[in-house]
């Protein structure tokens, strides 16, 4: 009997250890960063401009957060430290999360972009597709811009606001611009690995790229992504605004969050800060992105806004 009891105790202890390990694994899986902290030093680049803007910028970065409603949990902002010293205004980038992911798992990504002189906003919304949480996060910042007690008081450049998102968050990008009340305040967008149109319809992540009204950069992996190369082409064809698309071989859905961040940063610097060096990644026959061997199926399409030049460029 003692042997049986001892055996049961051992088995029970082993089960407790296994349960604890499984719980720890699940905790890590749902809280681990979505991009490596040192990705700005380890991601391979294929051009001088991409390399420059993948590196950390010159600004020291500060962080603040406040409580947000429901599953959104909190509004989060990374921003240049000079903002607190009175310098203004600063352009803004709102980020929309992928499925089940909160902005707290994108810290390295946000810090990198903020180091180049942006106020970068996020929240913890695990289901961002409608763009409602992106809208609420932007509204929060606009309220802070009018609040004399806020660090952001009269520090927001309301004429230069961009939006980016990954996966389901890329669906939110389209909906935030075209369906939300403050969508007209966005002046450019980045869509990273957006859900393919037919797949999105099938699973209820509805969006209409035909309503997109701002220059849009679409980047995805050439395989192992939630959108195919043909899907990227279809998406670009439907968008009426100027569009740049490119695929990156050797990456997958998750890695597209950060692997092209050099060009994402250059895009926002060009269109929100008028950085002409960054513009060279996208403008002209010698645009670096068009000639970067790490990418394929690069396409620059001039449509209604004529942001990029007088004629369509293809490679």
The gross shape turns out to be: globular
List the secondary-structure elements in sequence, H or E: HHHEEEHEHEHEHEHEHHEE
Q: Roughly how much helix do the residues carry, as a percent range?
A: 25-40%
**Strands of the largest sheet, in order across it?**
1-2-4-3-5-6-7-8-9-10
List low-pLDDT spans. Answer: 8-30, 309-315
Task: Evaluate the radius of gyration.
Answer: 21 Å
What is the percentage of strand-forming residues? 15-25%
Largest sheet: 10 strands, mixed
Distance between the termini: 78 Å
According to DSSP, the number of beta strands is 10
Describe the structure.
The chain is of the alpha/beta class and 315 residues long. It is built from ten helices and ten strands. The chain has a ten-stranded mixed beta sheet with strand order 1-2-4-3-5-6-7-8-9-10, sandwiched between helices. Strand 1 and strand 2 (74-80) form a beta hairpin. Helix 3 (48-54) crosses helix 9. It is globular.
